[in-house]
Amino acid sequence: MKRRFAPLMIAVSLTAGLAPAAGLAQGAGAPPVQDGVKVGEMSFMRKFAPTGALEKQAAQQYAQTMQMAQEKKALGPDNHPQVIRLRAIAKKLIPYALRWNERAKDWKWEVNLLGSNQVNAYCMPGGKIAFYTGILTQLKLTDDEVAIVMGHEIAHALREHGAERAGKAAAANLGIRALELFAGAKGYDPNLAGAAGGMVAKGVMLKFSRDDETEADVVGLDIAARAGFDPRAGVALWEKMALINKQSPPQWLSTHPAGPTRIAEIRRHFPEVLPLYAKARGLNLHALPAYRTNVAEIGPVN
Fold it and tell me: What's the pTM?
């Protein structure tokens, strides 16, 4: 659906990712943080994909997307209030993102808004962020909730989940090919063996994707809290998502964890991120008011 863009666009860039072991001790590749959330080192599988090449490719794809949006009058102008809002939030988040990946200090960050009813946002490798108007208007996101979404997407880029997925996919393809050759050598149908191996690989990749989403949730909470955004907005965000996503596949068939699972994981990390938020805002941790979103059905979040 094409939409002409009157003053209603933003400029922002996002991507996503985190590991299920968000509470594990830090490994050698983890950021040197003592407070806030703790995650393990980044997956070695990302080394099978050239990060620099992925970032260059992402920059090209992002530029093409923005150009196409501009031609369709679906790219938010620099002076639109929503674009200004998104970029202001990104400006607060980015300094606290750099601690998670030393490469990020050299990224050419961009933030843009695309006119579309999609409830979506992303951050490509290299810090190329985009928000769709649908996620802002349909969810009626507060600034805190925008920061949670943006932090999540930035975390995917910081933790190099794109490179990790590419490496895992390459390894899976090699494994399937080896299985086919082995089956053929033993007199079995290599096509059946490959199909079976593919089903197993698909299930494993779905699990990896859900793990990355969990990691992005947790790292995003840390970034947002340090920047002075209420991490409890993460609960309100996923409760809002549940209101518009009444039908979703079972968690084991989805690349994203189920809503209740995400909310439970977010709440589990409140003891780590709420002190960061209180410190950033100069508030008393033990006297924080309940977080209130703008949807009456959800109400206050503690």
Answer: 0.72
